Amino acid sequence: MRRDLKSVEDLVFAGLVHAERSEVLQAVARRYAIGITATVASQINGDDPSDPIAAQYIPSDLELREMPDELTDPIGDHAHSPVPGIVHRYPDRVLLKIVGVCPVYCRFCFRREMVGPQGDGNLSGHELADAIAYIAETPEIWEVILTGGDPLILSPRRLKEVAVALSGIAHVKILRIHTRVPVVDPDRITLELIEALKASGKTIYVALHANHPREMTSDAMTALARLADAGIVLVSQSVLLKGVNDNAEILADLMRAFVAARVKPYYLHHPDLAPGTSHFRLSIAEGQAIMRSLRSQLSGLCLPSYILDLPGGHGKVALGEDNVLRQEDGTYRILDRAGTEHRYRDS
Ligand code: SF4
User: Which of 82, 107, 177, 322 is paired with 199 by a 20 to 30 Å CA distance?
Assistant: First the structure.
C-alpha cells in the first residue's frame, strides 16, 4: 500500500517500528513531527536495523536526550529576521520562508522547532505581502532563497503567486529554492510547477537536499532531468550524518550520482546543534578526515564544500584545515567570514 506516514500508528501499521516502542515514540512525536512519503517508505529496508534511509526519518528515543550546547534556533534565524518570513543574514541575499511544513520530517533537521504542525506555520497573505515589500524596499538584495519548510510542497498556483510577486522586483536577479521534493516525492516536479517558478523571470537555482546515494532513484533522476531540461541550475546540499553517510565511499557515490544527474555538489553541512540530534553528530576532525579522503578520490567537479553554520547566527564557514584550529582541550577556534574568532565544541 502506498501512502504517506504521519504518526507512530502509521509506522507500526506499515511494519517500520515495533508496537512495543509506540509509547516512547509518542513522546518524541509530541515534540517533533513525523512525516515519511510513500516514496521514502518504499525505500526503507525494514529488515536492516541500520538502514540509512530509515535513520533519517524514523523517530528514535535518542531524540529525547538533549545536550547542553544544543539550541532551539541553532543557526540564529530569529536574530536576523526583520519581518516574519524573512531572514537577512548576509547583505545581498535573504531567506524567504513561505511555508512551515515539509513532505518528510528529517530527524536531524536544524529547523525542527520551527517546521511541522507545531512549528511557525505558513506565512499569511498579509505577512507574505510584508515580506515581499521588505525585499522590494531593500535594493542590495540580489538573491531570494525560498526555504522553510519545503517550498515545493506548495501547489503550482501558490508558487506562481510568489514568483509573480518577485518578478516585479528588478534588483532581485536570482531565485533559489531549497528542497527535498525531487527525491522524496518526485511526482510533484511537474511541468506546471516548473512553469510556476519560471513566472518569476529570474535565473532559478534549485538546491537539492539528499544525503545517501540510495535516494537518487530513477524517479528522482527523472524529476531532476525535468528541472535541468527547463534551464534550472541544480546544486546539492547534504548533511554529514553519523549512521547515514559518515563514510567517504558512500559520499563519493552520492556526489557522483549528483553530477550524473546534472546536480553540482555544493555544500556538505556539518550537522547543526539542533535539540535531540547528538546521535547524528560526528566531530569536526572526523568530518575533515572524510573530506581528505573525498579529495583523494573525486574530481573537483564532484567535490562539495564542507561547511559549518556557526551557532548563534554568525553565518557559514568552510571547515578547512587553515581556519579551524583544534585546541588541546578538544575545542576548535574557528574564524568567521569577518575574521572574528568563535569557539566550537563537539557535542
Ligand atoms: S525537509 Fe528540510 S526543513 Fe524539512 S524537515 Fe527535512 S531538513 Fe528540515
Answer: 82
